[in-house]
Amino acid sequence: METFNKDSTFGAAFAGFAASTVCLGVLSTQAYTYFRRYPLDKPFYKGLVVGLWCVLLEIADQALIAHAVYSYLVTYWGAVEVLIAPPIWSLILQITFGVVTGTIVKLNFAMRVWRFSNQNIAVTGLIVSIARSELYTVKGFQLDSLAHIAQMKIVGTLSLGLGMATDVVIAAALCFFLRNLRTGHRQDDSVVNSLILYAISTGGLTSVISLTTLILYNFMPGNFIFMAFYFVLSKIYANSFLAALNTRRISRGRGTDAETNTMPTFLMVGKVTQRTIHIDTNHQQGVHITTTPK
């Protein structure tokens, strides 16, 4: 770090902390909305929302960010030599929490790709490979100084680049396989189109943030602006997962709270499509079938 600028180092870290706090507030609102809309949802999804996003991971992640920012801006304020000291433990541990959050979200989306790709091993395997981004955390614990953070450029670039590539693959795969569910019926196709649009928007958002972090890290390693974007990244992943859960009612076009359980959006689209194809087949055979919504 050739020159020291408080605005682009500590100031950027503080801005990232503020932005991630806003994202955590949005996440908390989504969690509240989820439990109000889907009180009878599957225990698996409830466990993810409560145990991972709201309690263990994202609140803990935000606490770690707060501890790191407080340490640099208050405890060690004015001590520039802290930049040549080993990183604060909470700053490194926060990277671990961020990696775990992103990995779990991508694995959940990978399950959807697996179902709609007729168990395509190549595509799903590429998505699962994001787990290798944990190498970034291991290398982080070996960093002897924040001033030498540019020495992690190879591992950091691999981690962020792999994460961005995985987001693109997930969005592209979902768009491709969801497109095959179109039946020519306006109501069913509108559901599929809305899901394709959602896959593109969420995948594009996380990809843009990952790409921005990657560019800033490679071309501006002497400041912490890239760190501000990284603070927000895991919250965006968590929000995208909860948004996928909360839009099931909207994408389906009817409430699901009264059912014995609620199904993932993509599963519901599959069932609607299968029912439509079944009805069309029987119509071709001269049999008239009328279905009554539950």
Description:
The protein has 294 residues and is mainly alpha-helical. 73% of the residues lie in helices and 0% in strands. The relative contact order is 0.14.
The secondary-structure element order is: HHHHHHHHHH
Report the uncertain regions: 250-294
Structural class: mainly alpha
Which of globular, elongated, flat, extended, rod-shaped describes the shape? globular
Mean pLDDT: 75
Q: Roughly what fraction of the amino acids lie in strands?
A: under 5%
**Strand tally:** 0
Q: N-to-C terminal Cα separation, in Å?
A: 64 Å
Main sheet record? none
What's the helical proportion of residues? over 70%
DSSP helical segment count: 10
If you compute it from the alpha carbons, what radius of gyration comes out, rounded to the nearest whole angstrom? 22 Å
Short description:
This protein has 294 residues and is mainly alpha-helical.
List keywords for this structure.
294 residues; mainly alpha; 10 helices; 73% helix; 0% strand; globular
Question: What is the fold's blueprint, element by element?
Answer:
Layout: H1 7-37, H2 43-75, H3 89-116, H4 121-128, H5 135-141, H6 153-179, H7 186-219, H8 225-246, H9 248-252, H10 265-284
